[in-house]
Amino acid sequence: MTSSKTPGYPEKSVLPAIAVDAEIDEEPAPDPTQLRGKRGLVYLGICLVLIGLNLRTVFSSFSAVLPEITSDAALPGWSLVVLTTVPVTLLGVFAPLAPILARRFGAERVLLGAMAVLTAGLLLRPFEVPGMGHLPALLAGTAACGAAIALCNVLLPGVVKRDFPHRLGLMGGLYTTAICASAALGAGFTYPVFTATGHWTSALWFWAVPAGVVLLLFLPLAIRQPAVKHQAVHGGVNVWRSSVAWQVTMFMVLQAMMSFSVFAWMAPILRDRGIDGGTAGLIVSVSIVLQMLGSLFAPALATRFKDQRIINMVVALMTGGGFALTIFGPTELIWVWTGLNGLGQGSLTAVALTMIMVRTRDAHTAAHLSGMMQGVGYGVGSLGTLMVGQLHQATGGFAAAGILFLVVGSLAAFFGYRAGRDRFV
């Protein structure tokens, strides 16, 4: 495996989401989290993994009971498009605020605040406003969740890198696996909770419980951290003027379009094809578990070579093709199509993030490229869920969405080819 290492910069074989530090431009440099011995470090590690375990349930839980919500709450068609799009859009909108808030309050306290907002948003979502129905609370709660997740997405990797410099591989694997697992849990358990309780509100409220538990666990650790104000240090490469950075970012945009569409629309697509809610949730959950396998192996394969063009194209076409076959292919092979999509999507997400490391020469440039990719990638990537929703509203089915994902997969292969060339930002 190739390894390009700079002083203070982790090897490129390390998972890129963990190697990139959103606080790298701060002065003075943030101190490690104040802990009480090795037990404190283990406690912090558990808290960070548990935070990761709550970062995707908001997406997959909603889609798991979408037909029941639509029927019971009498939601207008436009609201479904908004509810599946807004949280992803906010991932990009709030991402740039995370380092600013961390400089003012400290990363740990911002993470604590984000978990408080996430818990509140999950509690708010199912409420019924007298005379107005469920829609206002659904909109407000979903928006709060998206904003909170955006802050966690940006700050968690830096905290892991700062406090676990000699355990990046272990913590990287646990953290990224927890995020994938959160989506799988939301997809797999929401419908059974609905079946057991008889109402979709209980199924959505259920996911506030683990978020609240993590909030309470992280509270004593976060509040004891000293408040130190930091300043941003400007300088270095301007990634916004780099053609390589834009090619990598477009690759990220297109993978995000497909990734979040899986969370938002895969279960409704399966149910539209006649699969019952419990089985649909299980299929999506298994597909996301296969994403975890892809995300584990794809970066190691990609970093063996200086040129990632072939692997970028293959996983992009696997993802788009798997999604299209889920819509058009025979239902007898639905596990095959969703499995192909899962392996492809997990690999695609991982290699897109790997481009941060292999297309940059130093940690500062990698951090700025990561910020650009998250802001543009999630912001523009939310158009995937938006277009699927609009096409479904316009046509009454998902056939047009299948064609859309063939196009998106092909475009991802094109930009993956461009981003995979051996060049640097």
Automatic annotation (TrEMBL):
Keywords: Membrane, Transmembrane, Transmembrane helix. Coiled coil: none annotated. Pfam families: MFS_1 (PF07690). The chain crosses the membrane at residues 41-66, 78-98, 110-127, 133-156, 168-191, 203-223, 244-267, 279-298, 310-328, 334-358, 370-391, 397-417. GO terms for molecular function: transmembrane transporter activity. This is MFS transporter. The lineage of its organism: Bacteria, Bacillati, Actinomycetota, Actinomycetes, Micrococcales.
